[in-house]
Amino acid sequence: ILAAIAVPNFLEAQVRTKVSRVKSDFRSVATAIEAYRVDFNDYPWFDNGAYPKKYGALSYRLWNLTTPVAYITTVNFRDPFVMMGTWGNYNDDLLRYQYNYRNYKFFGNWGFDCWVLNSLGPDRVKSQGLKTEIMIRGLDTSATPTIIYDSTNGTKSAGDIPWTGGDTRYTNR
């Protein structure tokens, strides 16, 4: 009986800890991205092309935050919600199954310069995709509640965990 009570509580605590870690990682990377912007008057460039297998999306796209000026010591953050063999064709133990970064200036003139970091969230499913534009523009996401993770819907509710910066109307939570 005790195990039936303790195990679910332990699993819930693990999810809450992982969500906190994601947000902490995002704050660190966001600080580095904004410091880079102060020096170069632009956000790190986003390369949507294929990257060498030995790199994850985040370390390949944000390498210039560590070299030649170290705005942050590493960008090899591991998304705790990504499982082996997901986020594309990753199956290499050496890979860091990382958060994703996009600079939306890359996608053309949307009238704003912003970026987003993304974690799969507790459901471990890529929920956002092109719906990120809705989030960045600060539009109402209540019609599509599975886009953004909200712990008030339950610890294991659907949605990705985003963190945005720049000219965005979305409020990080």
Automatic annotation (TrEMBL):
InterPro entries: Pilin-like. Gene3D superfamilies: Glycoprotein, Type 4 Pilin. This is Type II secretion system protein GspG C-terminal domain-containing protein. It comes from marine sediment metagenome.
